[in-house]
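Homework help board

Subject: predicted structure for assignment chain

Our instructor gave us this sequence and asked us to write out the predicted structure in token form, then describe one feature. I got the tokens but I'm not sure how to describe them. Can anyone check?
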Amino acid sequence: MRPDVLLDQLKKTATPRKQRTLDVIYEVCREQYERGSKDFSVATIARIAADRGGPSKGAIHNATGDDYKGLIKAWAEYTGGVTRKVQQVRQNPYAELIDKIENPALRSMMNGILAENRQMRREITLLKAEGNRLIDMRPRSAEPRETIQILPAANGLYPSEIEALRHAVSDRLLNDEGWTTDAEGRVINEEGRAIFKPGYVSAIKKITGEGDVSVNKAEKRIRIAGNFGLPEVE
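My token output:
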């Protein structure tokens, strides 16, 4: 059924208030079609309609919102659109964060670090596939009772780089983007989807010196300059 025909039918039995909200939904869908968008998901239509007095996302999903869903679906079928958002998979999960770094040199450096990190992860995976291997990084003179712990540290990073990392998990950035964090260190968007994996927030805070990293007195500390360089034993 054409959207305009369905709209006329729905308005015949609707209250004046619902007639107005049906008109809002219809106009939003029509504008989506005119701009060439295939996105007729409830989340998108409700977000645009909210500024015009239209029904909220929750109201459309409720049982009383069947007429709204039917009208949106009619537009999607009529124009070859979709009623569900297609999740875009990005090869680099940190691309959105890196794009927010204003300094071009720092942005390029972070891309390089992440690229080498991914390469090292692939090499470690290959080594694991060949069998169990134990990598002992202790000095030859170390006594068996001593334990060496590798700690994330900020050595080797410029102040501007540390500030960029702090900004990545700052309350200001999270509030501006509508994101939140959970106890496991994930970053969650407005739709409840995890943008960054568990440990993301805590890892950055440890790198910038804001995390809680405890070390026994009997242990030695090895600080790595970023992800590269030779370890320095204190």
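Reply (TA_rk): Your tokens look well-formed. For the description, you could write something like this. The longest strand covers residues 220-225. That's the kind of observation they're looking for.
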